[in-house]
Amino acid sequence: MMGTALVYFQYLLQLEPCPLCIFQRVVVITIAAVLLVATLHNPQGWGIRVYGALVTLVAAVGAAIAGRHVWLQTLPPDQVPECGPGLDYILEVFPFSEALRMVLHGSGECAEVLWRFLGLSIPGWTLVAFSGFILYGLFIVIRGSNRGYL
Length: 150
What we know:
The protein is mainly alpha-helical. About 70% of the residues lie in helices and about 5% in strands. The longest helix is centred in the middle third of the chain and has 29 residues, at about 45-75. The protein is globular.
């Protein structure tokens, strides 16, 4: 997912990520890190369920962010929030909790749809991917055995 975001969207199509896109990228990297640690740790018994729960939790956060992003993109033009400052400025000037609130509130740049495939925008596809990770994590939690699924 990060390869597609960086190589195809950002460098090839020259699309700059909005703050919500950047947060979704952080979640994708976090899921990858959890899965890498789980693979290296190779847990047995209940340990595999812990990693499944972590994947589910992180993916749920990503789904919430992507869902908010999709919602912003479906707003009528007169209800789209004003464009705000860039993420770098927000993180430098405001305390983290306030910066997080501002980014999750969204801005006009987050509501702009610049690319579609099969009717879904980029955050729509990340929502699909996060939903898949949620299902995968729940499968691991329910299955609970180390049979090569993690």
